[in-house]
Amino acid sequence: MAIQAQRNRARLHVLRDNVHRAKRDVKLRKPGAAERLKAHTAARLAYAETGK
Questions:
Q1: For residue 25, what are the contacts with CB-CB under 8 A and spacing of at least 6?
Q2: Burial 13-52 (b: 16+ CB within 10 A, else e)
Q3: What is the pLDDT of residue 1?
Q4: How many Å apart are CA 8 and CA 43, to the nearest integer?
Q5: Is-contact 51 8, C-beta < 8 A?
Q6: Residue 31 backbone phi and psi in degrees, to 5
Q7: Among 17, 33, 35, 51, which is most buried by a count of CB atoms within 10 Å?
Q8: Which residues, 6+ apart, have CB-to-CB distance to 36 below 8 Å?
Q9: Can you say how many angstroms the Cα of residue 18 is from the centroid of all Cα atoms in its chain?
Q10: Per-residue confidence (pLDDT) for residue 2, from 0 to 100
Q11: What averages of pLDDT result for each successive group of 10 residues across the chain (52 residues)?
């Protein structure tokens, strides 16, 4: 059973990794990557501001 801090850290890492994968896909010119990058970046910023 994970404590709250572990869950928060895991979520932060997932959000970070999503952004990194989307940036890589933009560089590789995969279809839809730019939209994914915008969505993942917005989700990461929202989590940073609200913690949810």
A1: 33, 36, 37
A2: eebeebbeebeebeeeeeeebeebbeebeeebeebeeeee
A3: 64
A4: 14
A5: yes
A6: -65, 135
A7: 33
A8: 22, 25
A9: 4
A10: 72
A11: 80 95 97 97 93 74
The tokens for 19 are 């952004």
What lies within 8 Å, CB to CB, of 18 at 6+ separation is 40, 43, 44
DSSP the chain: ---HHHHHHHHHHHHHHHHHHHHHHHHTT-TTHHHHHHHHHHHHHHHHHH--
- Rounded Cα distance, 34 and 32, in Å: 6
Amino acid at the residue 46: A
